[in-house]
Write a structure and sequence with these properties.
about 500 residues; Rossmann fold; 6-stranded mixed beta sheet; 15 helices; Cobyric acid synthase; catalytic activity; Class_I_gatase-like; ABC-type vitamin B12 transporter activity; CobQ/CobB/MinD/ParA_Nub-bd_dom
Amino acid sequence: MAKSIMIQGTMSNVGKSLLAGGLCRVLKEDGIRVAPFKSQNMALNSFITADGLEMGRAQVMQAEAAMIQPEVYMNPILLKPTSDVGSQVIVNGEVAGVMPAMEYFRKKKEYIPAILEAYHKLDEKYDVIVIEGAGSPAEINLKQNDIVNMGLAELVDAPVLLVGDIDRGGVFAQIVGTVMLLEEKERARIKGTVINKFRGDVKILEPGIRMLEDRTKIPVCGVMPYIYADIDDEDSLSERFDRKEKAALLDIAVIRLPRISNFTDFAVLECREEVSLRYVSKAGDFGNPDLVILPGSKNTMEDLLWLRQSGLEGKVLRHASSGKPVFGICGGYQMLGEEICDPEGVERGGTIKAMGLLPAVTVFENTKRRTRVTGRFGEVTGILKAMSGAKLDGYEIHMGETIFSDKDAADHKMMVQICDQVTGESRWDGAQKKNVYGCYVHGIFDDREVADALIGALLEEKGYGEEAMHSMDYHAYKEKQYQILANAVRENVDMKKIYEIIEKGNAAECFI
């Protein structure tokens, strides 16, 4: 049986995901077979495994840190919010339905067998499982049916490391308050605490650390600095959206839809020296970008209506009419067509007019396409013609089919020829018309050949030569970021204490 350690936080966005990823990499470097686990994830960033199942991106990041292939067992329940009060519920990689929050809350404990089955699949293969909690274990209104924090820790008998965020202030109150709100048996599970996102001289913290240990009777296992590592994060409180523009040759604007999904599609562009990539949510911030991207959405119809009401649709249409490129991915691709039809009420029902930039109609169906794909761009026309023939590797997650009538054939070209890695089927996907492009493939820019072709085409359009481009291997870049994270964990966390916690598990011990 695998041993475990669980990372819980005093609140959301304290850095649980990154700390868990850092521990995964450190343990892997130390020769330990390690895997991540999170029983329930709420996120609009998701991923498709090699066997066509859907899981949250945070555990994909942690699996990459552990140098193993992501498996759906690492995240058996994924909640993808479709509105403020409801989510699509995905269990072991497959859609179980769309539920209002109260209905899911009532049914949560019914998913315990699925959670334990997934956990035991990892238990059979690995030496250590690094478990991530969600939000805070001290949400007293949610504790009765908890399956992701102390409820899960009890189910799998895991020791807990509690993390607080000092960057937002009040870290001592966070940690002491959390510990005090827990029941005695829950407090006993917390074997250590970590202060995260610290900027400054740790010596200044030492009096506070001594008082914290005295109040909680729990050792502080480390003070993690604020880490500048470019690693995929959760979507709900991502700092990516608030990053300031950098000086660069190219300006790429991604429309920040209210229900934006899989914005990890653009991480490869964000880290390029030639590119300033920004997320735009107001018409007044649109500017004069070199490329506009419409990203994926968990509710395409509602986000399209928001785009219209916000004035951003008009900005995008004028951008396209000026001859500048627009690129839509998944939900953004659907918005570029002429109509979106929802006869079965998958989203909001009915039919709405789309942007009319591609001669296509999207019809929603209850069946979700989930698959990994490889392939190549076909003959690409317009400004992005340099992308012709570039190879791609990505995945699809969508519930709509986009249809072109025969009369439209002369008015557009299919864009990418792909091979479905789950079914083996070969097919064409996407469309292009003049300088408007779209397809369903997430991760389409990740391959170096595609990113270079896209950036090179945009630079050429602005009159820059080949010397302006600085090509990079994105996968090597990501590995460097994981190493930065792992090094920070080694330098700032008492790994000897962490190994003691893992080895002893939930055994009682006296502090000091």
